[in-house]
Write a structure and sequence with these properties.
The structure is a homodimer of 363-residue chains. The first copy, chain A, has 363 residues and is α+β, with helices and mostly antiparallel strands. The first copy, chain A, folds into 2 domains: 21-38 and 47-153, 60s Ribosomal Protein L30, Chain: A; 159-354, Phosphoribosyl-aminoimidazole Synthetase, Chain A, domain 2, CATH 3.90.650. The first copy, chain A, contains 10 helices and 12 strands. The first copy, chain A, has helices at residues 18-30, 74-91, 111-127, 178-187, 201-212, 221-234, 249-260, 277-281, 283-292, 305-315, and strands spanning 44-46, 53-62, 95-105, 132-139, 144-153, 169-172, 241-244, 263-267, 299-303, 325-331, 336-339, 348-350. In chain A, the strands form 2 sheets. A 7-stranded mixed sheet of chain A has the order 7-9-6-10-8-11-12, with helices on both faces. In chain A, strands 2-5-3-4 form a 4-stranded mixed sheet, covered by helices on one side. In chain A, a hairpin with an 8-residue loop joins β11 (336-339) and β12. The longest helix of chain A is centred in the first third of the chain and has 18 residues, at 74-91. Chain A is globular, with a radius of gyration of 21 Å. Chain A starts with 17 loop residues before the first helix and ends in a 13-residue tail after the last strand. Chains A and B meet through α1, β1, β2, α2 and β3 of A and α1, β1, β2, α2 and β3 of B. β2 of chain A pairs antiparallel with β1 of chain B, so a sheet runs across the interface.
């Protein structure tokens, strides 16, 4: 009945810390989680497919900033670290070749915690058909996990931020705000019992899972490639724009518009609110979490109608329950506006300031 | 007269911190140091050469562990971070495609310091014909620089740790111990005036430069490829072993031996002591720094005589002043022993315990 992944907890007879094991001992412990032959050379060797472009993306998680080691299970920290990077690959239209893990960690860190982290990492990369192909360990006063993911994509099918064009439909691959709802429930479990219409146990678990074990949308990449290739032959080899929504849906649309020199018109009634969120938290909070919550790791795509139709056809029977949802349209100008039911009203202007910005809002 | 690179100090009219600029402002400041088009997409896109294997290597520098932000100029931190990764590529026989920089940094970090860091990074990668192709910024209580370097190499010419064979010569590409001498001089400048025979100002500057601005030995890679290809056609396609000496010369030999299931016989008189080191610090300390000092970033290669001769011929007129030095021989067994002038004496057994081990010795 509990949909959270059940990862067996690490079995360590003694409360070993990494200082007890030393670097070499630690490397031996972590070897089973990595691709064969990873531990023991200065670098990993991969063989990219001929003719493909290589995509490289890097993402860092810091204890106390992106997660709390006391409240987040290490498996979830590992899963999320891998998922965030795989999501960046998906947002470029790439499929993964492997990822490297650079860990800076305090000597008091327990080996069980570290093994849990690697278990989460290995489970996520394994679920997406790839592997940990390299890494580095060093000591630090604070836990920092830096991951670099490598992927490949046929060069004409690379998705870029700056390729949105006026008239493109803005479509998303899933609900937004569920991760934020899950975080709130983890921070204050009693909140599940409050509100006009508290979430069902199933909703609660789904939201917590969305926060702890987000799923990068690599499932859409093969369908996207097929639809984009068709779309390109029909429209003079144009490129297409995408981002993931790791920093929030509003941030993704704003970044796409800024990079492409366009604006966007979003329709409030079409926003992908998770079912049950508005009736629990009220519409204002639900909209806020949907637009600015972040960490949903869905794709935000800007596609002409014909390509969107092709994508829906390509995904066909394999399409997940949510499918694709059109949330707005790319327009001329530079403003991103959110419109209510009255098409005559000017709409609310959205700005980046409200989004997740590491060095301004958070200090 | 001063051989230290003169990098102009960043000109900032106000003592800006990164919290003042915010993430987007910071990214705009750092864009000039990166390859065009890097800032602004979820990942970087590279085009590897056909038929080459991809090499990936990751390395992390932590403030207070690997450097002190108060005593190390930011340009040197940047240079060393890049150099350490390029050195790992050289140790695999690879030439660089690009590198990514993941920075976790406190909001109080000055923009001038950060720009200095990027200046050092950009200068190092530029000197070696490559570029910063991606990155990530996030806040953290402590400064952590994680770099991932990408390189490529023809698959048969990949250098591995586990390919040393009995009878191979162990050769190095430069002096060892200079970086440690430089560090000691930086920690205590007055030490340059002590000892039986203090270093000349030129030696002092060379050692400090060896510590702050180490040069990865990518210069040897083209010559190595030529000699290895010849050696392979002569000896049934065998592979060859190498490491860099970032964790010390003794550590490199021990790791090569352990991975290859062999031993080594090192000759004390052939060890690559920097000129002037023994007369300044005495032979015991000089040997200690040469074997265990670390961070010299030279190559340690295990090559049959014929390949060594081919390498010397291939490097020809282009060979740097040091050339190659044979420091010992791969032998059967598992012990690494250091031998004095009397070939009948059993030799001193070297062990990994004495080398730089992040989580044991340092705590």
């Amino acid at each position: 009945m509990n949909p959270l992944p059940r990862i067996p907890s690490p079995r360590n007879p003694a409360p070993l810390t990494i200082a007890d094991l030393g670097e070499q001992g630690l490397l031996q412990r972590l070897q089973p989680f990595c691709a064969p032959g990873v531990v023991g050379d200065d670098g990993a060797v991969l063989q990219p497919s001929p003719g493909q472009a290589l995509v490289v993306t890097t993402d860092t998680l810091v204890e106390g900033v992106h997660f709390s080691a006391t409240t987040t299970p290490p498996e979830a920290v590992g899963w999320r670290s891998a998922a965030a990077n795989l999501s960046d690959l998906a947002a470029m239209g790439a499929l993964p070749l492997g990822l490297t893990v650079a860990l800076a960690l305090p000597s008091t860190c327990s080996v069980a915690w570290l093994e849990g982290l690697y278990q989460g990492l290995a489970q996520c990369v394994g679920d997406y058909g790839t592997a940990i192909v390299g890494g580095d360990l060093c000591r630090a006063p604070h836990l920092v996990v830096s991951i670099t993911a490598l992927g490949e994509v046929p060069p004409p099918l690379v998705l870029k931020r700056n390729a949105a064009q006026v008239g493109d439909a803005i479509v998303v691959t899933g609900y937004h705000g569920a991760s934020r709802a899950g975080l709130e429930l983890l921070l204050d479990p009693d909140r599940a019992l409050t509100g006009l219409c508290p979430p069902s146990p199933q909703q609660r678990d789904q939201w917590i899972r969305a926060h702890q074990y987000p799923r990068p949308r690599l499932d859409w990449v093969p369908w996207l490639r097929s639809a984009l290739a068709q779309g390109q032959s029909a429209s003079a080899s144009r490129s297409f724009a995408a981002m993931d929504s790791s920093d929030g849906l509003a941030d993704a649309v704003l970044q796409l518009c800024r990079a492409s020199g366009v604006g966007a018109h979003l329709v409030q009634a079409d926003l992908p609110l998770p079912p049950g969120l508005a009736s629990w938290q009220g519409l204002a909070t639900a909209l806020d979490w949907t637009l600015y919550g972040g960490e949903d790791f869905e794709l935000v795509l800007c596609l002409p109608e014909t390509v969107l139709a092709g994508l829906e056809a390509a995904s066909g029977a394999g399409v997940p329950a949510f499918g694709l949802r059109r949330v707005g349209t790319i327009v001329a100008g530079s403003q991103v506006t959110l419109h209510g039911s009255d098409p005559q009203e000017p709409g609310r202007v959205l700005s980046l300031d409200r989004g997740f910005q590491h060095f301004s809002e958070l200090f």
